[in-house]
Amino acid sequence: MQHPAYGELRPVTSYASVLLARNPNPMTLDGTNTWVLREPGSRECVVVDPGPDDVEHLGLVAEHGPVGLVLLTHHHEDHTAGVAEFVQRTGAPVRALDPKLCRDAEPLVDGEPITAAGVELRVMTTAGHTADSVCFVAEHDEPAVFTGDSILGRGTTVVAHPDGHLGSYLDSLRKIAALPPGVRALPGHGPELDDARAIAEHYLDHRQQRLAQVRQALTDLGPDPTPRQVVELVYADVDPAVWPAADLTVQAQLTYLEEQRTL
Q: Which ranges carry the Metallo-beta-lactamase domain (predicted)?
């Protein structure tokens, strides 16, 4: 059973399986990946990102309980809109970096160890895609990192101004790139990837290439172009359906370049 597989819990490692929500669109790719974690033999499970407010999806996830803990990678609604319904179904506490998203539990702390359902995780803050983005590193003989939207299974991540911040995102990619080789990336969208470190390095190269293109666009367009003018030059190869997101990405890039000039 390969990605995408709707409506079925698809095993990926001995302790991590994924249930794909039916919310595909240009931004979510095939839909949101809800991860269900438990060591073999564990009664309870951990759920990472319950997903959208989709009663069918949430019911399917809840069937694999009891749920001891819900973890959130960031606040975007395609990952969190179903939390209230899911908590009502399962009674599980919810932890996130943002205290406003937590339910009956404390906010996450960078570097904090979490042991639940027999799985050992380490919190790694990865601001950039959003200010509250985190990854969860599984300290296991099958090592993996649950990347939310910091790394996707296909394509690259939107860093949308003002919540998205490119300088922070580059720093976060460097954190992921510092993981040992062979740590699998289990993302919030798209298929799993074999080596998070290699993908993070690729993302860093891609961002530097885009920044070079933006600098050239500023030279070609003259002073104070609009973000859309830059998008039409730099993102001409991207589906116009996602150009509104590209507008915000360009604004994040322009903000980053201005920050670099003032250092």
A: 31-189
